[in-house]
Every structure is written in structure tokens, then in C-alpha cells.
Amino acid sequence: xxxxxxxxxxxxxxxxxxxxxxxxxxxxxxxxxxxxxxxxxxxxxxxxxxxxxxxxxxxxxxxxxxxxxxxxxxxxxxxxxxxxxxxxxxxxxxxxxxxxxxxxxxxxxxxxxxxxxxxxxxxxxxxxxxxxxxxxxxxxxxxxxxxxxxxxxxxxxxxxxx
Amino acid sequence: xxxxxxxxxxxxxxxxxxxxxxxxxxxxxxxxxxxxxxxxxxxxxxxxxxxxxxxxxxxxxxxxxxxxxxxxxxxxxxxxxxxxxxxxxxxxxxxxxxxxxxxxxxxxxxxxxxxxxxxxxxxxxxxxxxxxxxxxxxxxxxxxxxxxxxxxxxxxxxxxxxxxxxxxxxxxxxxxxxxxxxxxxxxxxxxxxxxxxxxxxxxxxxxxxxxxxxxxxxxxxxxxxxxxxxxxxxxxxxxxxxxxxxxxxxxxxxxxxxxxxxxxxxxxxxxxxxxxxxxxxxxxxxxxxxxxxxxxxxxxxxxxxxxxxxxxxxxxxxxxxx
Amino acid sequence: xxxxxxxxxxxxxxxxxxxxxxxxxxxxxxxxxxxxxxxxxxxxxxxxxxxxxxxxxxxxxxxxxxxxxxxxxxxxxxxxxxxxxxxxxxxxxxxxxxxxxxxxxxxxxxxxxxxxxxxxxxxxxxxxxxxxxxxxxxxxxxxxxxxxxxxxxxxxxxxxxxxxxxxxxxxxxxxxxxxxxxxxxxxxxxxxxxxxxxxxxxxxxxxxxxxxxxxxxxxxxxxxxxxxxxxxxxxxxxxxxxxxxxxxxxxxxxxxxxxxxxxxxxxxxxxxxxxxxxxxxxxxxxxxxxxxxxxxxxxxxxxxxxxxxxxxxxxxxxxxxxxxxxxxxxxxxxxxxxxxxxxxxxxxxxxxxxxxxxxxxxxxxxxxxxxxxxxxxxxxxxxxxxxxxxxxxxxxxxxxxxxxxxxxxxxxxxxxxxxxxxxxxxxxxxxxxxxxxxxxxxxxxxxxxxxxxxxxxxxxxxxxxxxxxxxxxxxxxxxxxxxxxxxxxxxxxxxxxxxxxxxxxxxxxxxxxxxxxxxxxxxxxxxxxxxxxxxxxxxxxxxxxxxxxxxxxxxxxxxxxxxxxxxxxxxxxxxxxxxxxxxxxxxxxxxxxxxxxxxxxxxxxxxxxxxxxxxxxxxxxxxxxxxxxxxxxxxxxxxxxxxxxxxxxxxxxxxxxxxxxxxxxxxxxxxxxxxxxxxxxxxxxxxxxxxxxxxxxxxxxxxxxxxxxxxxxxxxxxxxxxxxxxxxxxxxxxxxxxxxxxxxxxxxxxxxxxxxxxxxxxxxxxxxxxxxxxxxxxxxxxxxxxxxxxxxxxxxxxxx
Lengths: 162, 322, 800
Description:
The complex is a heterotrimer of chains A (162), B (322) and C (800). Chain A is α+β, with helices and mostly antiparallel strands.
């Protein structure tokens, strides 16, 4: 077992883990942050997507020890002060989810995209979620929602909006 | 109970020393993608992990027009795909990196680990078949080799390797007492084998430090295509990298490599010969492609790969010229 | 609760809004609420209201079974067979039991979900259940961590006596094939459908023939029919095994206490979990409580407790602690359901003018160790062909059991039927739509819907631009195709909704039904809100608890058709109750009181009204509680199979597909789907569109990519993962255009019907027909992956 300090959603945590433990196992089983899901546990469905120093990673394929010293952002840390992230709000408005199980991961990837590239295109959105699986088939609305959120962010950044 | 130990190596020498001390139970880890997969599938059970992530000497992308490209072993696939020098000078490599795995995996997977990964053969990836220590189910190899497949139908899983081979890349490894060696990638990759701990020339006590690519001439054209069933995220039916050097509109030299069609990525010398000294058009490209698939020995389930490979070679040659 | 059998004849407008609505007389139970007008005149029903439980889903707060963490909870890990067919000689659990952290080990003494021997005595003396597929659960371990449970599970030693096995449909059909079951078997339906007709003959691995199905069996004389035909086509179609692959795998958390068993279940039917657990563990139903806050997809496979659930309960009882058993992805693929394969030999006879004279179908399908691999009811139910014969055989192999899967059987059947009709249209030189126009003439709602849908779809899809087959000269060839859908309109037999209006003006609606992603809470909230003049988000919907009034299964596309009438009926009663209390203060009679836009007022006097909350406070009551049932359809049903009540009317749908076929690589891309559908009265266009997207995308995935691969030597599923079991990803999603018609069938107080399954039925056939239009070649084998496509393109003509 090894002692491990992690910074999750801006807060420090210390846990004891076996070195083979993955980041998602720590988030879910040790920290109770069950918003991050495991769909395949092999990095092939991306339901476990979190941000590591602002980059999307598959937390099921990340050794927890590799997350030391990095800023970990999970779905629980995306909304600020109960204010939904524009991508979260757009997912609600455009019904970009059905069963909802892949949704936290999808939101993390789409939010990453629009923050990086508010001028993103449909192809960019398809690319951003190309490693995700939504078995319910919410994709068309995920595309619409993400593009709408990007438009909202552009407007906000340009100081526009009402 | 698990007794897995984790050590953060501070230097290449320390990592080599740790690997030398226990060549069987110790595994070096870079991005950890394949290692985690193999551990989860019960195919490897290391007692000690030597983490290479904190060794700065293994990082960095360096490009110089005169000497070429140097990729530290820890360079991620995302870094390769996004690096402007690589995109400009080694576009086939950038494309190959961009089409490997998922965005999430590309952010963590390293080029070193990518070259060292084990095959994705569905027999290899199941511990049930490791008890027998041999490949089984050859007739199910619809994604397997159509050349050189008398011993195994498993194919090497790295797709960046296809592009790296076309650029004449070498792999650099460090061993005991500071001993470093460079190995041509074509010699480094070995046919996948259940009975070996790895499918490369890397020794148990060596660390892959970097990959080097020779300088690229001004008249070089290159293209890469990974043919899949799906565009989102898929393993290849085949992938092809083409690197052409032109002189007066004619091909002076050609390197064409196909992956996922033989146990190791296959240099298509017959195609290369068909191009050298000629101006490329549809029919020349088609002729070169045809030459490549002569002598294919597909199984009943993977014979469909032969015409696909031929198509992809032809299209990729033309794409390089476009 | 309303129980009267009195009926009165009401004149109601029925038909398709925007097409034709006719007044007809219908006998309706006296206490049913007045008929709703078309959606255009409503405020909440029929509007694209946001999903009421979307926020917990986008913030990660939604708690799935997989997320349940209870104090002292243990983690269960299943030990599965590693051989395809064997007698278990011994099981040694001692090392597992001694492993640190292990609290309980349990060995299964019977296997659920698979076909059961008609004569159980044949294997009554076996010490352990026989192993009949690789991945069959045998035992399970509960430990304080998943890591410990996994390590301990590996220490369970099982000694097998191997028996000959067979994992391939055709091999299993041979006379000398190894036999999966030693005698005839039976398979009861689950609440989600499936199952097989009882008492059929069985020889070797072949069980059947089954004749008919929901369509009521064959009719006429096919030989005579073929004799009358000018053209007869004989074709063979093959479909593959598809696994459900819900994102949340099957799982159950069992908390066994002396006084009560609480089960947290990822399920499509809370009450099926309760009933099966009560039966298996011999508990009174009221001592079993099932909770399902959110279910991460099901698609037909999540009914009952399953072997994993039985193990969780056993372990919890033994360990005296809550135990969570959640399958990993490999176990999910291999052991908890799939859509059976099919081999369909179809013969179709028609006259030169398109009149179909006979249809004969002989089909074989394997659901592994489960029965019920039929190919649907479309052959007899969809078109009024005079002569029809269907014979179906289940073929057993040593592979995981099938389960109901989004329009079970019908997806396979329609793939063949709608393609052979396309082939006949081509043979006759007829437009495929004109052929459908000629033959789709049953006097039922689905046929009426499809007639309108063909017209709308043809226009939107640009059918008139359709070119002759193989019109493109380059290697990439494009084409367009059409196929029709049919699914049963199903109502759940036992359906009660409770509505509470509290003195503070808050409104609560309850049902035991769960949500698998279709929007159970939302459609219930909309229905209640409409009646009370509120917004959907004003209604607190409580679902997914077996203690609430009995709700439907999420299977058979029956949630909305079952819940909304009950919710409306209960709300109607509550609203009338409230109206009576409020009327005096408004100086009006109760039946003059209206609820609109959050206000309560007397008809014609909106200015003198008050808000809903004010009205409740003024009326000064603690709580108004009303329960009501979903009444039977006003015209009754064609069949009642337990709680599965099936209307004479079906649900239609027509889909148009545009594809691009790369004839050199064999890669097919579906570029566009126009999906025109009906679901009675559409309750929520936004959620319906989502359902149709999902159905189409799963249909494309089935058509092009998905296929289970078994190793012949071991019976192991080779691609039991997400990357090599290939499913549509973001870049394979076509442009999908959805159009939904509003059809008022006037069979219930909301006229709502389902759409989840209808949306999935026609897609593969539409894609196959578009493939023919693109290439001039037929593809009769799924999936349309490069290997199968290149083989089809090489084939001689369109006939092989």
C-alpha cells in the first residue's frame, strides 16, 4: 500500500492505495465521487473521462499514482457554485442524454472542447467524443448541445449577450 | 494479498539498475496504458513497477532540419499529433499518431509504450489462452496477418510504427553501465509471440530512451492512411505509410510500409520498385499496389483484407502526391 | 379509485392530426376524464419539455445501482465457467474463503435465465448445475474490497469433466452435433417479452417448429398462393448475434435483514426484481423492497434478478452485510443476454401488379442456451397477405442466453421481409413505395399511420431523386432505400398512479416504474401538470420503488402508454377534488373551475382567480390523495399475455436511408436517415426525438458493425469488450431527420403509445435496400462489414 495525495476539484485528499489502483477507483471507492463512471474499464468507452491538469484522460487507464501533483477535475467539480457549466446546461436544454450513464464523461470531453476551442465545428465535436460510447444514441443532441454551448461561450467572451 | 511495489525512478541509470536487479518481476512503466490493460486481463502480474514518468531525460521533441527528429520515449501521441514541426515535416507520423486510439488515450500513451505494446489479438488478450502458451484459433483471425503468417497470424499493434518505419526511424535504448545502443526500428520489432515477454529486441534490463528519425529532404512527399471499419475509434484492417523523394517530377526513392497485414509492419519493396524512376499517376499507383499484394497468403476469414490493402496502398500513394 | 364498468357512448375525433380527423362514436367508461384535444390546444402535453431529471445526470449526482455505497457494503465477484460444456466434478472454495477480507462464498445451485428442462429429473442427480456455456456463473465471493474479491475469486478451484460442445448455428443443426440439452426444454417469457411457445417438439438442438406468434399463425395455402403468382422469389437472409451492451452493466446491491430484503437494482422492471427474489428466496413480496433511482440502459436485458442478483442476495444473507454485485464488461457480453441470430429462408410470390399471393418463411435462430430466437410477427401481422406460412426453429448452442432486445424478433424478421419486398418491387419494375401502398392495407392504426408516413418521408428524403441501381461510376456508390416498421402497441395490465396535492401547493406523483433513459419521470410530470395547469417541473415525480403504486415494465415500449393515462386519471380526480374545495371562494360551481398557467379560476373569469399555491392554501387541506388505474383500452385488446396487453392496432413507422458504399474497401457509411414515426399522441416531442435517434443509431450499428465472435474451441466470446465488439461511435452517426405524426387512436385518456422499439425495427432493412440502390447488389448477411460487403459485391448478380 502507498500513501497518496491528490488534488481533486481543488481540494487535497490523502488515501492509502495498492499501487495497481486506478484513478477512477480512488475517485469512486475512496472519495465517494461516483459521478465518474466505469463503462468498460479498458479505456474504450471514455465514460470515466476526467481532466488531469486540464487534459482529458481515461481515469480507468490512469494509475492513481500518476495523478500525484496534478489538478484532477471531475464532473462534480465542473459546475461552479451550483451554476451549471454552459455545456451542462446545453445538455439539459437539448436533451443530450438518455439513460445518463455516459453523460458525465461526455460532458467532461465536450466542456474541454468548448473551453479550448469555442469556435469548434461539428467535426471537432465528433472528434472530441470519438472515444466515447453512448449506447442510447444521444449523439445528435450531444453535437447540437456542444455547438450551442460553444456559441454561448463565444458570445460571453466577446462581451455580447444580454 | 498484492505485494506490488512502485518505484519512481529518477534517472535512466536507476531504472536500468532496478530492471537488472529483478528482470522477471519488474516492469518499466511510461504511460501505463498497455501495462494496465495486461494487468487487468491477468496476462502480466508484475511484483514491481518502475515508473519512468519522472525522468526528464526521456521527455522532449527536438527537431533540426539537418539532423532530423528526436522523440523522447515519454512523448505522448497527442504531442506528436499536435507538434507543428512533425505535422509539417513528418506528416505521415503526425497522422498515424492522430488516428491511434482515443483522444483520452493519446493524451497519456507514450511513443515508447506504443512501440512496446503487446498485440491486440483477441486470443493474446485473454488469460485463458495463456495457460496453453500458444496462439490458438487461427481460423478466427479476421483481423490478422495476410503475409508471413505461417507461424502466427498476430500482428504488431503499433500504428505509429508503420509511419516510423517509412521514415527510417531508429530506436535508442539504454542498458547496464551506461551502455546505449541504437537499433533500426525494422530490426527492433519482432513477430508477436505468446512465449516471449515482449515483441521487440529490447532486453529485460534495457530502457527505451528515444526514437530518432533522419532528416527529411526538401522534395519529400508523404501520406498515411489507417483503414478501419469505423472512423471514431477502431483497430486497423491495415494501415499504409508512403514516403516518396521526388526529382524532376519523378520518384527518386520510395518507402512504403503496411501495418496490420504481417506480424511486423511490412516494407512493400515491390511497390517501391514499381514507383522508382516513374512519374506517378493512377495507373502507376495501381501497378505498385498490385505488386504489393502478390504472394499474400490470407486465411479463409481474412482474405477480404487483400483487396483492401491494395486499395489503400494505391490511394495513399496518390494522396502523397496530392 | 375508479372501478365502475359503466360506459357511455361519446363522440370523439379520431385519426391523424393534419391529415384527417373524423368523429366516431366510442364506448368509454363513464368515469374516464374528457377526451384531450389535439396537442396544439394543450399547454404541457405535446410540448418539448426538458427532461425533468436531466440536471442530476449532467452533474454526476444521479445515483445508479453501480453508485450505491452502503455502510459495511461488501463487493461481490462472480466465478464463471472457463469451458463451454461440462459437468462440474468438484468445487474447492477453501482458499478463497481463507483470503483476507473475504466474508462469504456462495455456489449457485440453479441457473436462471436459461432454458429449463421439461423433465427436470434428467439432471436431478447432478451435484452442480451443468455448465452449458463459457462464462456461465458458478459461484461468487464477497469481500471488503473489489481487489480482494477478485483475487479470492481466482482461488476458487473447479474441476470439470468436459463434454462435447457446439458454438455454431449450422454445426448445431447437424444430426451428429453435440447436444446442448439432454431433452426438451421450455422458456417462460420475462416481463420484457421473449420466451418461447411451450410444448414444442425438440430433436437434438432443434426446437420447433413454432408457427405464428402474435400474428396468430399462418393462414391460407401458400402452395396455392405461389401457383397464382407471376413471380416467386426465394431468398436466404442471415443476421448475427448482437449484445445489448448497456453502459451500466447489470448489477444488484442486496441488503438482507431479518425483517426485510432491500434490493438496489439496475433494472427495467422493479416489480420483476421483487417477484423473482421473493419467489427464489421464498419471501412474502411485501418483505422485498426494490429501489431503482436510475438505470444506465437496458434495451430488454434487465428483467428479474438474474444469476448475479441471486448471488448478491445469497452472499448478503451469508455475510449479514450489504453486497454489491456489478458485472464487468466481459461478463455483461457473455452472460446476461443478446439478440439471437437468424437464418431466414423466405419465399415470396406476387402477381405482376404487385399483389402478393403468398409468403413462406422458414427460420432458424440461436439464442445460445435460451429459447425464443424467433423472427417476429411481421409476416402475418403487417400486411394482409392471403397465404402465409411461418415455421421457426430455435437452435441451441453452447453460448450465453439470449434475452428480449429492443423489438425482439421483429428486427430480424423485418430485415428479411422488407428486403424481399424491395427485391420483389425491383423484379416487378415497381417503385418500392408503390408496392407498399398496394399491400399495406390492414384496417388498423399502424397501417393508417404508415400511409401518411410514406408520403411525408418520400418528400423529406427526396425519394423522387432516387436513381436506378448502381448509378455512380466511381468506386464510392450512393443510394437510397426505404423500409417500413411495425411494432405492437402494448399496455401494461397492472398500472396505478398516485397523485398527491399538498396543502402548500406542492404536487407529487408516484409509480413503482423505473427509468432506463426513456423519460418516465418527465412524461408523468407533463401529464399531471397539464391537468393542473402547472409546469412539468412543478411536479415532484417519485419512481423506482416497489413500495409505490404498481407501474409498468420498461419493455415493449409501454411505459408512456401505460403511465400517462393512469397519471391523468388520478390527477383528474385530484383536480376535481381541489376544484370542489376552491369553488366556494371563487363563487363558482366546482365544474366551472379551471386550472391554467399556474392559476385557478372559474370559467370566463380568469381575472378573479388566484395562483395554484394560493388556491391550495386557501382551501386549507392537508393533502389530497388520489389513485387511479390505467383503464383497459376502450376497444379492448387482441391478446393478454399476463401483464402484456396487446392491442389489435400496432405502431408504424417508415425509414429512408441514404448510404455510400466504398466498393473497394467494403466500408459502408450511412449518411442520412429520414425517420417518420407515430406513437399515438406524442407526449414529449423532444424525448420522442431522442428515442428515435437512439433506435436509428442502434439500427445502423446492428446493420453495419455489431457481431459477437465466439472461439469455436472454447466457446469464449473473443470480443467481449467495447473496442472489438464494434458499435456506432460519434463519427458513424448519420444525419437523422425525425418527423413524428400525431395520431389520436382514442383508446385511453391520453392516447399515448410507445416509440422506442418501432424506431429500431426498420433501419437495417432500409440500409440494405439503399445498399442495393447504390451498388445493384444485394447484401443479405449482417453486419455489412467489409468482409461481408466485399463478398456480396463479388457475388453473381443480385440473386445469390
